[in-house]
Amino acid sequence: MIAVDILLAISLLWLAYLSLSTRDSFKSIILFIIFGLFMAIAWVRLNAPDIALAEAVIGAGVTGALLMEFLRFLRARDEN
Amino acid sequence: MRIKLLKLLSIVMFLILLSTIIEIDSNSSGLLELAKENLEKSGVEYLVTAVVLNYRGFDTMFEIFVLALAFLGVSILSDKRVEALSENEPILNFFSSILIPLVLMVALFILYKGSYSAGGAFQASALIAGGLILSFLSSKNITFDENRLIYKFSFSIGLIIYLLIALVGVLTSQMLNFYSSGVLLMMLESSLTITISYILFSLYLRVSR
Question: Across residues A32-59, what is the average pLDDT?
């Protein structure tokens, strides 16, 4: 299981760096949602299933939808 | 130049956090034995839910009030118009007609499951908020008049019931005791679910209006 844990940690850091350094906003929001999903798996590995449930729903569901909606608002404003 | 400084600062922060994690003693159990001994008196059968809703019940109450205050702050700063999407997407409509009842069922199960296993009010309410967002995105014609009584009721029911249950505990003992039984906790969790899901969904509606 150590290999899975190390791979998870490296991929979390890599996804976070990618999400912050991408030029395209849409791509960085998608990477943020994927980061939330990997974080939920990390919470399970840390023996905290409650937080894993909350992270999966909020990180991917509510925050992802919120960021996408704001991106739509920004793009509509830039066209005008 | 400033970006290089920020990168250096973040690496230093990371090393500091890493050094504090390495020093944690993994053999001490803290208050775990005391928490497990009083589990039957707390009204639930799962340690995490007992800690969140009973041992630290006042903390959760103030968190819910802070969330409600943040929602009031956001709703002051935004307009109240809600427009529906005008496109008709058949794939979205088909899948959301399958998904939304499933989301509701899973959320209610997670809410009930919180008393004996992982789950609880917050997870269920976030899931319901996700389902509400999906139903908003796949509907053609929706009016969301927030002055209706049902929305005011669903915003305030969690706060009122939490306050009443906290008052029961404070008034019936000499210290700041959070009295709870199984029935009271189930009532509390249900009303919390309604309030938090309404707050999260309404926050989504106010993003760009």
Answer: 94
Residue B110 contacts by C-beta under 8 Å, 6 or more apart in sequence?
A53, B119, B120, B123, B124, B127
Q: Which residues contact B49 (CB under 8 A, 6 or more apart)?
A: B114, B115, B119, B120
B20 touches chain A (CB under 8 A): no
DSSP H stretches of helix in A1-80: 2-21, 25-45, 49-55, 63-79
Is B100 at the interface with chain A, CB within 8 A?
A: no
Decide if A46 touches B, using CB distance below 8 A.
no
Cβ within 8 Å of B, A 50-79: 50, 52-54, 57-58, 61-62, 65-66, 69-70, 72-73, 76
Helices B121-137 and B182-205: crossing angle in degrees, nearest 10, is 30
Q: What is the mean pLDDT of chain B?
A: 85
DSSP 8-state assignment for residue A47: T
Residue of B113, B127, B135 for testing the chain A interface, max A β-carbons within 10 Å: B127
Least confident of A4-8, A33-37, B139-143, B144-148: B139-143
Phi, psi of B31, deg, nearest 5: -95, 15
Give residue B76's pLDDT band: very low, low, confident or very high (50, 70, 90).
Answer: confident
Distances (CA, A) of B95 to A62, B66, B100, B140: 18, 35, 9, 15
Query: What is the rounded CA–CA span in Å between residue A68 and residue A72?
Result: 6
Complex ipTM value: 0.89
